[in-house]
Fold 2,5-diketo-D-gluconate reductase B.
Amino acid sequence: MSFTTLPKIGMGTFRLKGNDAREAVKSALSLGYRHIDTAQMYENEAEVGDGITSSGIPRRDIFLTTKIWHDKLHASDLINSLHDSLARLKTDHVDLTLIHWPSPGDEVPMEEYLGALRDARREGLTEHIGISNFTCAQMDQAKEILGDTPILTNQVEVHPFLANRKVVEHAQKLGITVTGYMPLAVGKVMEDETLQRIASERNVTPAQIAIAWVASRGVVPIPSSTRPSHQKANLEALKIQLSEDEIRAIDALDRGERIANPGFAPDWD
Ligand SMILES: NC(=O)c1ccc[n+]([C@@H]2O[C@H](COP(=O)([O-])OP(=O)(O)OC[C@H]3O[C@@H](n4cnc5c(N)ncnc54)[C@H](OP(=O)(O)O)[C@@H]3O)[C@@H](O)[C@H]2O)c1
């Protein structure tokens, strides 16, 4: 199967190492996830590959994403590092390759690394290409550089405490699907009173409400969990249809709280 769009939810793997990564991927696939998100920087591509192989689910049925770290953005480094990723993942191609962060301080010109990413697609190393942590201006620049080559997604932080409206709306206007990372604000959503109230009224959990809210905006959530019970609940959250009142109450939780904000991050919108 060749995927033309991103599956509606994915399993994140940041921080999952060794056997935890293997088991989490295997269990997610057995529960019905078909979209796995890893990155060179997570240092778990080999274990993610093991989890996929041992799941018994055919590789062609799984949408697999990896990301190029910002020290591999020169053209030859990018292609070589993607070959290394494929070897660790034990596959001949990924479904999506993302530029994990725009080059800090534009040290490597965007033309160079997006050109290399397009070459990787032409060579069949990746079915689709995309970007991550790109601002509105950087999305415009990327569109300009890539022309007819589609940018499948911009993967950015989205959760009830960081709605990231400007970036989400701009991406959607450009026809770029947004993938929302840290949709549970790394577990903080569980402590929020509004989310707790809505969740208890519906007999679900605040995590499920957060995922349903992300999905209601047309954003693809990629929560991570080591526990099969949480993975199952997160998958089932896609079935929740929030009311307009509930969405308004969750929208009001936006406080611009950014969790992933390293020193090399771009000037956020
Ligand atoms: N592109 C980027 O720069 C970037 C940056 C950060 C993250 N990401 C991607 O986004 C993914 C998600 O982000 P994240 O892993 O940092 O944070 P997250 O998904 O917001 O939160 C993960 C935390 O939530 C807990 N959790 C998961 N499901 C739960 C549930 N149903 N009920 C209660 N707690 C639950 C997990 O604990 P348990 O294990 O105990 O369930 C874990 O501690 C990453 O794994 C990665 O793939 C991308």
Observations:
- Residues 11-183 form a domain with the TIM Barrel fold (CATH 3.20.20.100).
